[in-house]
Amino acid sequence: MDRKEYKEENIESLLSQLPVVNDDMDRNDLYQKVSARLSTNKSFAWTKFKWIIPTFAALTVLFLLVLLIPPFVNQSNEYSKEADMQTGEASSANSDTGSTASNSTLEEEATIEKADQTEESERIGLTSDEKPDFVSHVLNQTIDGMSFIQSGVLDTNAQYLIPISFRVPSGYTRMELYNRLPQMIQEEEWGVYAFPLNRVSFTLNKGEEQVTMRIPEKYSLNEGYQKLYVDLLSYMFTPLKVSKVKIEQTGNETANFGMYGNVNEIELEPLGKQSYFVYQVSENKPQFLVAVPQDKESTLEEALQFMQVPVDTPNISPSIQKEMLFTVETYDQMKRAKITVSNQTKLRNNQTSLNMIESIMMTAKSYGYETVTFDLPIQKIGPYEFTEELPVPVAANPMPFTE
Q1: Residue 23 contacts by C-beta under 8 Å, 6 or more apart in sequence?
Q2: Which spans are transmembrane here (predicted)?
């Protein structure tokens, strides 16, 4: 459509051609209406565009958040990871500690249980008895018919006889071993004193129940153990049913035998009643059972009670613990004895208890009994099981044979 150009004159001409409109409205009213219309239009315009500022502000905030939040998120993640690692380490440490503590507790419980089992086993005697440190001090029987000899030594105070025995090895006779005693007895190693048997020889007179003892010309006995010397000869030869020792001294018809005077023979008698104690000089020396003489009128029970009391001699200790409560029953005609120990007595399967059992049996033997029955709060000590009566030993303190 073509634009037309209008001039003033044209406009006025056109306006004059419009229809006439009469308006009776008061000018004041018209003014108010126009003012109101203008106010309404302005309010509408503001209302239409007033959302722009808050929206812009919100966008600005979002923009700032987009810029600022990621570093905090990353840092927070790092802190979270570190915290998780620390928590994990702490948890692991706690777990390890807990595991270690748990393992330690289990080990302690196992140790305690094992100790309890060991203690209970020792109490009833079920632990291994054939231990290297279990040493028997008696000879219970000969092995494969092997015979043995008996001899003796003295304690270091020369107060008591300590019986010893040797098995006779193949290729030797008993008398050969009797004549080798000075070489076989180890004074220093055993912590004992030996009788003066150097240059002394023995010969068994078969069929005469006697032994001939030959001593050198200058031979004397210490006055302190002359009686023990005769006890030694009795201990050596009465098991061979020898009742007399004939003494021959070079260059003399009779021998000066100290308190016995000049004699050419000595009557032997079996050793009397004895209580057996434990003898040991030091820990690095062997133990022995030592015989302490008792009154011939004493009973076995009195002898055992005596074995609970220390003797006034160094290196000799009681073989029965002082606290042990026991009773003794004897059957003289059957030559049997029964020892009953109270259940309140604590016994263990160890060397001390083994020494006690063997000391009791050797003591019972010296009182003429051939078997001993033990009723103990323990089933086994060393090689001994107490389910039946035990024969008394044949000899004490078996020692190794040396060439």
Answers
A1: 30
A2: 51-73
Q: What is the mean pLDDT of residues 111-131?
A: 50
User: What whole-number percentage of the chain has pLDDT above 90?
Assistant: 46
60-70 CB burial, b ≥16 within 10 A, e <16: eeeeeeeeeee
Q: Which residue has the higher pLDDT, 136 or 217?
A: 136
Question: Residue 172, Cα to own-chain centre: how many angstroms?
Answer: 44
- Could you tell me the two tokens for 44? 């509408």
Residue 391 and residue 160 in contact, taking contact as beta carbons nearer than 8 Å? no
pLDDT in tens, 32-52: 766 666 555 555 454 555 566
